[in-house]
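Deviation from plan, reported transparently: glutamine complex.
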Amino acid sequence: MELHALTIHELQEKMKSGAVSSAELTRSVFSQIDKVEDKVHSFIRLMREEAMEQAVRADEQIRQGDIRALTGIPIALKDIVCTRGIPTTCGSRILQNFVPPYNATVVEKLVQAGAVFVGKANMDEFAMGSSTETSFFGPTRNPWDLERIPGGSSGGSAAAVAADECIASIGSDTGGSIRQPAALCGVVGLKPTYGRVSRFGLVAFASSLDQIGPFTKDVEDCAIMMNVLAGYDPRESTSVRAEVPDYRQFLGRDIQGWKIGIPREYFIEGIDPEVSAAIARAIETVRQCGASIVEISLPHTKYCVAVYYIIAPAEASSNLARYDGVRYGFRAADARDLAEMYSKTRRQGFGPEVKRRIMIGTYALSAGYYDAYYGKASQVRALIRRDFDEAFAQCDAILTPTSPTPAFKLGEKTDDPLQMYLSDVFTISANLAGIPGISVPCGFSASGLPIGVQFLTGHFEEGKLLQIASAYEKSAAVEKRRPAL
Ligand code: GLN
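Because the crystal trials were delayed, the predicted structure below was used instead.
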């Protein structure tokens, strides 16, 4: 098999034994990019020269016996994490020329771990979307069917892993933006607990929901990435000072006697029948692993989408107030005074979905409406969180579909924001509750589109999450296919 098609752990073996160098691997990744990137468009910016230099340095370190967690492994970064000296656009015109003077903590950690950076991956503008169609730089396409969307907002990061344009990647998840594209592209994607991974240097969307996490080709690679990403950061006030276990130790452990909760509210009308069938098979697989299946209830599920679409836009409207053309980013020309400069800059700099969110959010926070909207949504959010606390008193993990449908067609939902928002019905709750979630491939539709199953566990239980994900992955043995590009 070609080097770019292998996993992190397979490549580590080969590099350690000297059979393969990082320079060869990185060249292989870029040859795949040269072959498929015109069709898929996973990237806003490629970092070919930097990557080759990093690969040569990694090979030097390997020769000296300095082998770290990701030495020489080509990784893609969602273009929402700041990279020193390299433009970070967030998929927006307003940040088209923004060059951060510092690295995000996750980037710094990846550098320390020896990673090679392939490029900055495409995304929905400011991570607002479920299809990667709102990017100022044009859409990304699903490697499994180029007429279809890869999911979003981290669609570039997911597609790049699925198309073997990198070995693993980084995304961010505010309401499902790692798990949903992972499901739609047939890869593994994990959203950590709120506070588990530092967001220093992550461009803020909705600060009480945002988390950074990995996309990988299998669960073992996901554990390897989490070992690098997780941990307290004094520069990030919401990061939590909690011990980080070696996540690899959870791999291969059985789930005998575990109780797996199936929330009755997640099996609703509107789920694609092929998704339902695949999830039913996943439940059966988990049962065969020795777990017992218990029906649980998350009674406030029906409010999740509504609550999210008040809280996320409210926080976004305040986070995005800083893009006014004064200090950095795009500035409109020909303004007669300051007020006109602000309004022209923001009118020209933001796309329609971002403007819609700013307007909804500003309204929800405005005097006289705050209590009725943001205040009320925060109260319901507390109930949603309590639903999960009560559920985890009865089960070890929860199993749900990741997305109600496989990948939809480009343009299919762009004129109907509500339909687009409904792609996130199963993923939003984890962000509202702050718990970790993972999407693992669980099969294909008849037409060959990937389907994902989501597992959820309690706060800071990423270890258990990886344990069930790896037990499931091993037992399900979903057919290994690669997109025909
Ligand atoms: N699709 C959701 C939204 O549009 C979630 C996005 C995300 O997780 N960043 O807000």
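The pocket of glutamine is lined by residues 127-130, 153, 173-177, 205, 312, 424 (CB under 6 Å). We consider this an acceptable substitute for the interim report.
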